[in-house]
Every structure is written in C-alpha cells, then in structure tokens.
C-alpha cells in the first residue's frame, strides 16, 4: 500500500507496532520522530518528514492497522486551524489602471511575522473557501502596491494526489506520479482583495509569481518545481485571469472529492489548469 507517497510493506507496519509495544511511554510525536529516523525519511532539503509521518500514522489507525496511544494534549493543528483574528486594516477602494499600482511587491510570507498574521487573516475573511492550516511543502505570497497597500494573496501547496486530465497531459502512470508529485505545486488559494478593482491585476500578479516560484521553491525545499496547477470552480469563476496569464486548461474534474472511494460524494466541477515552468517539463516530471 502507498500512504503519504511512501510504499509500505508488512515489515514497515511491524516496525511501527514494535516501536509502540517496546516504548509504551512514548506519545504520538515521539513515535513519528523515531519512525523518520528509522526510515531516514527526509525531504529534499534533508529535514525529517515529521508531519508526513504523523499523517501516515493517523491514516494507518483509521485503516485499523495500528492503535495509537491516546493524545496527551490538544492537537496543535487544531489551535492553528482556528480562523485567525484580523487586526483593523484599510479597506478604502482601490480603483484605476494597473500602471497606477506598479511596481508591485511580491514577498514571501515567513513564519512568525506580522505578514503571516495578515496573510492568514485576509484569506480567512475574504476568500470564499476560507483558510486554516497549511501542511506539507508550501509557499505564501503577499502582494502590495507601490505605496505598500496589500492588494492580494497567493498560496501554493501540495498538488492533487491524482487528476485524470492532468496525469494524461503529463504522461503519468500511478508509479511515476507517486514518485514525482512533489515536483508539482497547486495554487490552492488566490485572492485579489474585494475592494481592489483594477483591470488585468490578477493575471499580472500570476505572471510575477511564475517568474520566481521555481527559484523560491529551490531555496526553501532544496528542489525545484516543474509546473503549477490549479482548479477553478466553474460555478463561480471563468478562469479568465489564468487564461490571460497563459495557463493551459486541460479539462475538468468529475465532480468528486478525494475522499470519494465509493463514488457517491458529489461536489462542484472544477476546470483544471496547468502552467509549465520549464520547456522540458514532461521529461522532468516523468524521470
């Protein structure tokens, strides 16, 4: 079986069970940390994949393959997932031509900063999907105009585990997709603030981001990404800004969720877009 992109065998399940049996005083965090050490499970930057290990353990427990010790404290993710408070901020209308806002400043949002609190708060309040915690490899961008006023946010995170139209376009079978999925990132949130009405702003911001995200990802995680993807809810949006920024529409989802194992959970149909960052992206993604 494959969990969190890692192939598991009976011996791996046995290792987890033996760790818990031999160390009954260990909590869930200690178990996941030790599991990373035993497997030498690291990301491209050399850091242990502790969060991936915790998620793997939870999935194995839900599958009734292991029984984890009881939680010793409330999940820190639960605290982070609360909608963050948003401090008072200007909502004065920003209208006019794009040239009046340029040059725009696109900055990476770093942990523990005022920008992070602002970024989280803006997405939570003004994006139709809201925003809570982000896990896995990700980059957050905050966009300001030339006077320093925030005008937008963009979040890139883990790519969709599978998508028929995307996988066919790239040339992925299951094994290659599982091996190379981290070379693709998903634009999971994109927001132009509701009081900002400036033609061509959204596509211009996307253009600024695609010119830098490959290098930004390399710096943060020790490996580049070869392409970007996103899913546009066709009941709400036409995807105009993505098409204007030269993203490729590959098709549409089937209106099911990632948890729809019984083919009975229906959701909105989304258009599938992809932006190759390098000319030979297929060779890189299928290596």
Quick gist of this model?
The chain has 287 residues and is α+β, with helices and mostly antiparallel strands. Helices cover 34% and strands 19% of the residues.
Description:
The chain is of the alpha+beta class and 287 residues long. The chain folds into 2 domains: 2-73, no CATH class; 80-285, Aminopeptidase (3-Layer(aba) Sandwich), CATH 3.40.630. Helix content is 34%, strand content 19%. It has 11 helices and 11 strands. The strands form 3 sheets. Strands 4-5-6-7-9-11-10 form a 7-stranded mixed sheet, with helices on both faces. A two-stranded antiparallel ribbon has the order 1-2. α2 (28-39) packs across α3 (50-62). The radius of gyration is 21 Å and the shape is globular. The model has no long low-confidence stretch (mean pLDDT 89).
Keyword list:
alpha+beta, two-stranded antiparallel sheet, 34% helix, Aminopeptidase, seven-stranded mixed β-sheet, 2 domains, 287 residues
Biggest sheet descriptor: 7 strands, mixed
Order of helices and strands: EEHHHHEEHEEHHEEHHEHEEH
Structural class: alpha+beta
Mean pLDDT comes to 89
Measured between the Cα atoms of the first and last residue, the distance is: 22 Å
> How many domains, as an integer?
2
Task: Name the CATH superfamily assignment of the largest domain.
Answer: Gcn5-related N-acetyltransferase (GNAT)
Q: So what's the overall shape?
A: globular
Query: Can you count the beta strands?
Result: 11
Low-pLDDT ranges: none
Can you count the helices?
11
CATH architecture of the largest domain: 3-Layer(aba) Sandwich
């Amino acid at each position: 079986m494959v969990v969190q992109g890692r192939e598991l065998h009976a011996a791996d399940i046995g290792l987890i069970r033996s760790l818990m049996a031999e160390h009954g005083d260990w909590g869930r965090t200690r178990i996941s940390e030790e599991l990373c050490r035993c497997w030498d499970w690291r990301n491209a930057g050399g850091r242990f994949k502790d969060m991936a290990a915790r998620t793997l353990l939870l999935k194995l427990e839900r599958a009734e393959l292991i029984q984890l010790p009881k939680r010793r404290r409330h999940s820190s993710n639960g605290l982070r997932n609360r909608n963050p408070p948003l401090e008072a901020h200007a909502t004065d209308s920003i209208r006019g031509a794009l040239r009046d806002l340029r040059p725009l400043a696109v900055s990476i949002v770093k942990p523990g900063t005022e920008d992070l609190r602002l970024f989280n708060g803006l997405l939570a309040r003004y994006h139709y999907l809201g925003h809570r915690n982000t896990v896995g490899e990700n980059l957050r961008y905050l966009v300001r105009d030339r006077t320093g006023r925030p005008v937008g946010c963009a979040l890139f995170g883990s790519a969709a585990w599978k998508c028929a139209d995307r996988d066919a376009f790239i040339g992925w079978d299951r094994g290659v997709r599982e091996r190379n999925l981290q070379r693709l990132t998903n634009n999971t949130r994109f927001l132009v603030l509701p009081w900002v009405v400036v033609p061509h702003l959204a596509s211009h911001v996307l253009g600024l981001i695609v010119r830098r995200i490959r290098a930004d990802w390399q710096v943060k995680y020790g490996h580049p990404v070869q392409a970007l993807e996103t899913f546009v809810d066709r009941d709400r949006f036409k995807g105009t800004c993505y098409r204007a920024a030269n993203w490729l529409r590959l098709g549409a989802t089937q209106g099911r969720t990632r948890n729809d194992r019984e083919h009975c959970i229906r959701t909105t149909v989304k258009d599938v877009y992809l932006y190759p960052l390098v000319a030979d992206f297929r060779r890189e993604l299928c290596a």
